[in-house]
Design goal:
Pfam families: Transferase (PF02458). The protein has one domain: Chloramphenicol Acetyltransferase. Helix 1 packs across helix 4. It has a 5-stranded mixed sheet with strand order 2-1-3-4-5, with helices on one face. It is α/β, with parallel strands linked by helices. It is built from 4 helices and 5 strands, in the order αββααβββα.
Length: 179
């Protein structure tokens, strides 16, 4: 990003700043060398970014990925209609889409995956017992995958669920909270 001194201020979203901090903290906790290439897997909801947007009742997934490398700027705003249409054209040319499905090879060391559920209305669900008081993923299958979850207090705070080996998790917590 540019500095304020040169008159070019870049506004990053809360998600972009938090994702960058998580990515940096995980990389440090893993003890990666400074020149180690690492990628951040970010799923992007394409429903409203495509023109025309997909209808609200569309039940299928419309998830795209942006995967910056450590030295690149995270720019979710780049994921516009033109970019996503280009991705769809690319997919049409692929003989085997299974090779592009994310999995253990996507998130494992040195890479990281971060998914945000922060804007999902999970605490608005009522199955007859009232508003949920606590919601978390039951299991995160891949090492290096993180999920950002809204707090049940509806105060804007967030919860982070993540999988790392125990020795990396302890270091991650130290780096993450040392701001």
């Amino acid at each position: 990003g540019k500095s304020k001194e040169d008159g070019n201020t870049i506004n990053y979203s809360t998600y972009e700043m938090l994702a960058a901090h998580i990515w940096r903290s995980v990389s440090k906790a893993r003890g990666l060398p400074e020149d180690q290439e690492t990628r951040l897997y970010i799923p992007i909801n394409g429903r409203s970014r495509l023109q025309p947007p997909l209808p609200p009742g569309y039940l299928g997934n419309a998830i795209f990925s942006t995967i910056p490398k450590a030295w690149q700027e995270i720019s979710i705003m780049r994921m516009d209609n033109e970019y996503l249409r280009s991705a769809l054209d690319y997919l049409k040319l692929q003989p085997d889409l299974n090779a592009l499905v994310p999995g253990a090879h996507t998130f494992g060391c040195p890479d990281v995956g971060i998914n945000s559920w922060a804007k999902f209305p999970v605490y608005d669900a009522d199955f007859g017992w009232g508003r949920p008081i606590f919601m978390r993923p039951g299991w995160i299958i891949y090492e290096g995958l993180a999920i950002i979850i809204p707090s049940s207090t509806n105060d804007g705070s967030l919860y982070l669920a993540m999988t790392l080996p125990p020795h990396h998790m302890k270091l991650f917590q130290e780096f993450f909270y040392d701001i």
